[in-house]
């Protein structure tokens, strides 16, 4: 694999919105989403979220004519310092309920 190859399973769609990550123990952190795909998402956090951490992201996605809050179970897969903005955190989705999966699919397509 070359350093420039994309290891993602699916393409991502840009989404720059405020969101909240609920970490183990109920600690909440305000973050900003970066992109969303069928298999996961990435966001910018003021502090690292270590790879392997299982948490929940609460984010609004469009659903028809409205924005709908979703609570999405995720597992972090990487953290990368991006400067003063913070840390870019890549996440894969855990088991999604069918309705959440539908909203994400409709947004990405």
Characterization of the model:
The protein has 109 residues and is mainly beta. It has one domain (12-103): Thrombin, subunit H, CATH 2.40.10. 10% of the residues lie in helices and 52% in strands. The chain has 1 helix and 7 strands; from the N terminus they run βββββββα. Strands 2-3-4-7-6-5 form a 6-stranded antiparallel beta barrel. The radius of gyration is 13 Å and the shape is globular. The N and C termini lie far apart (27 Å).
Please render the helix and strand layout as text.
Elements: E1 12-14, E2 18-22, E3 28-37, E4 40-45, E5 54-63, E6 66-81, E7 87-93, H1 98-108
Antiparallel strand pairs: 1-3, 2-3, 2-5, 3-4, 4-7, 5-6, 6-7
Summarize the structure.
It is built from one helix and seven strands. It is globular. Helices cover 10% and strands 52% of the residues.
* Overall helicity: 10-25%
Helix/strand/pairing category: mainly beta
CATH topology: Thrombin, subunit H
CATH superfamily: predicted glycosyltransferase like domains
Question: What is the gyration radius calculated from CA atoms?
Answer: 13 Å
Poorly predicted spans: 1-6
Main beta sheet strand tally, sense and closure: 6 strands, antiparallel, barrel
The overall strand count is 7
Secondary-structure element order, N to C: EEEEEEEH
Tell me the number of structural domains.
1
Rough shape? Answer: globular
Percent of sequence in beta strands: over 45%
CATH architecture: Beta Barrel
């Amino acid at each position: 694999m070359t350093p420039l190859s994309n290891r993602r399973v699916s393409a991502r769609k840009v989404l720059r919105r405020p969101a909240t990550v609920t970490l183990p123990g109920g600690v909440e952190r305000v973050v900003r989403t970066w992109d969303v795909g069928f298999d996961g998402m990435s966001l910018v956090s003021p502090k690292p979220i270590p790879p392997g951490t299982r948490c929940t992201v609460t984010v609004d996605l469009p659903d028809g004519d409205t924005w709908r809050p979703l609570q999405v179970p995720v597992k972090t897969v990487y953290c990368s310092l991006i400067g003063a903005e913070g840390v870019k955190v890549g996440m894969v989705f855990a088991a999604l309920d069918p309705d959440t999966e539908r909203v994400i699919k409709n947004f990405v397509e």
